[in-house]
Every structure is written in C-alpha cells, then in structure tokens.
Amino acid sequence: MTDKSVWDKEIPVPASLIAYVDDAVIAKLPPGTTPTDIAPSGASYWARTAKISATDADGNETAFFMKVHHGDHGKNMVSNEYQSMAILYKAMPELVAEPLGWGSYQDDPEAYFFLCRFHEMSDDVPDAAEFTELIAKMHKDNPSPTGQFGFPLVTYGGRNPQFFPVTKSWEECFSTGLKMIFDLEEQTQGPDEELAVLRKGFFELVIPRLLRPLETEGRTLTPRLVHGDLWDGNTSVDVNTGKLMIFDATPLYAHNEYEMGPWWCSRHKMTDQYINEYIKHFQMTDPVEDFNDRGLIYNL
C-alpha cells in the first residue's frame, strides 16, 4: 500500500483512465468477455490500478486486474512487465496471475495498460515452508535455456530501470547490473565522496572475493530463473483459494541464492525463517562458508 508519510505527490496518471474500460483493453480480454464494472483496486505510487468485473462467454462472473501508466516511460514499464510476468507464468503458472496483454488506450494513445487475471489478495505473507518449496522448484525446473546469466530486457523496480546483461559470467552480470543501480542513485541524490570510496572497494574487492569462487577452482554455476524482487510486498495469498501468489517481478537468470536477497533485510516480514526453509529444498552453493556474506551483497 502507498504510504503518505514517504510519498506526498499525486500519482502521475489521471484517475479518469480507470473510470471506464477502454476499447483497447476490451480487445485484450478473452473472447466473449463482457465488462460490467471497473473500480480502483490496490495501490501504487506511480500508476492507477483497477479491478475490471466481467462475465465470460458462458455468462459466469470473472475479473481482471489492470495497471495504467502514462507516457513513454509508462509504455516501457507495462510492456516489460507483461513480458516478465509471461515468462514466470509459463515457468510456474500455479504461482502467477495469468498475464493477458498490454497496449495503449484507443481514447488516449499516451495511456498504457498491463492486464492480467484478478486475484483477491490477503494481507498475509505466504507460509515459509510451502512458499520456499515452490520457489525452489521454480529455480530447479527453469535453468537458462542458453546457459547464460542475465535478461535481454530492461526491468523496473518501481519506476527505476535495471538491466542485467546476458553473459556467461555471473560475476560480470551482477556487477554490471548493480553498477547501473548505483549510477541511478547518484543521478538522483548527487555525488558523495565517501560512497564513491566504498563503491570502488565493493566492486574491486568484495564482489570478486565472494562471487568469483562460484565459477572458479573447478566449480560451475547454473543460471536459473528468479523473480528478482521477492519481498513480502510482492507476494501474497489468494483469499478465495489459499493459492500462493507472486507478482511485480524483475526476472533474470541468476545464481538462485540471489532470490533470497530481500530476505536478509531485517525490516521485511520474510526474513531468516524463509532462508532456513529454502535451503532445505535447495542446498547452499559451494563454497558454503561464503553463504551468509553472499546473502548480504545480494541484499543490496
């Protein structure tokens, strides 16, 4: 949910865009679907979100979730969100709401939408044992089809773009992606002398020390599909079915332990218990003595 204590700006998308169902949105619904209502649902700092109630071709009630952005940046966000969630849905449909499409409004070509099936979410975080078993299964069952790390598309953490290049080396992939995040932070906050010194040491000493051993001394690392931003704000439970759900992904093919990065952050609801349960289903990567330290750099 949005928190006015940290965000005092208007959402940069007109509320009128979720007061009706545009014809371009209707065209992305399953054949025979008839919208009956639309209402705000969920919350976002930078998009309008809505539930579209409808009847399907057989007259049964059904519902869809829509997220609307505005402008070229919004176009990139919804198109990449659709492709990201489509990859995860194909890999693990039991965990992901079916993505149906994206596009621009017929009435307003500068309005861009992402559309998927609607699930009524609870405020609960998923059960640690059940959830981590499913996440470990996703990792094990979905190695990179090319044997390479990274992702060919820019993804978005909030409104911020991030890019992990396709490469054979996890150290190179992770370092390049994280450098982009540091650069964006500096563009936003301005340069900082102390941070520049810390950054230099981190990239030149810390990352090689902790990630290079994963792929040297006879060790190999399999790139695996990860959600990429798996904290409690991007997971929930369907109130009607009890089904565990993940959303708002920033996927890439990565070292599977990268997925646990947010779980090392004490301010989150999903923390140590989830790490301890996960490694019951997917053992720690060698060298195991670096496991905790790898978690801390992935937490960044």
UniProtKB/TrEMBL annotation:
InterPro entries named among the record's database cross-references: Fructo-/Ketosamine-3-kinase, Kinase-like_dom_sf
Pfam families, per the entry: Fructosamin_kin
MF-aspect GO terms: kinase activity; protein-ribulosamine 3-kinase activity
Reactions catalysed according to its record: N(6)-D-ribulosyl-L-lysyl-[protein] + ATP = N(6)-(3-O-phospho-D-ribulosyl)-L-lysyl-[protein] + ADP + H(+)
The keyword Transferase is annotated on this UniProt entry: yes
UniProt signal peptide: none
The entry's keywords: Kinase, Transferase
EC identifiers of the protein: 2.7.1.172
Enzyme class: transferase
Family of the protein in this entry: Belongs to the fructosamine kinase family.
Protein name: protein-ribulosamine 3-kinase
Naturally occurring in which organism (per UniProt): Phialemonium atrogriseum
